[in-house]
From TrEMBL:
Protein name: Molybdopterin synthase sulfur carrier subunit
Family matches, as Pfam families: ThiS
InterPro entries in the record: Beta-grasp_dom_sf (IPR012675), Mopterin_synth/thiamin_S_b (IPR016155), ThiS/MoaD-like (IPR003749)
CDD domains: Ubl_MoaD
Transmembrane segment boundaries: none
Taxonomic superkingdom: Bacteria
Amino acid sequence: MQIRYFAWVRERVGLEQEELDLPAGIQTVGDLINHLKGLDDNHAAAFADQEAVRVAVDQEHADADRPLAGAREIAFFPPMTGG
């Protein structure tokens, strides 16, 4: 699965993107976040405050309970503001 990081999430993780083979137990966005937090200190820092991170599954905004079945790309980014 392609994982992409944007803005300060990318800075904390230290990667723009990575390709991961996920363990069988990873079924939802929330499961994925918990898995990523356990990879290393950088990932743990990026996801320390999960409320401050937004996610898109195949370029559609998603919540933590969104299933990952069939997803090709997951993107993590901070909340956006604009005018």
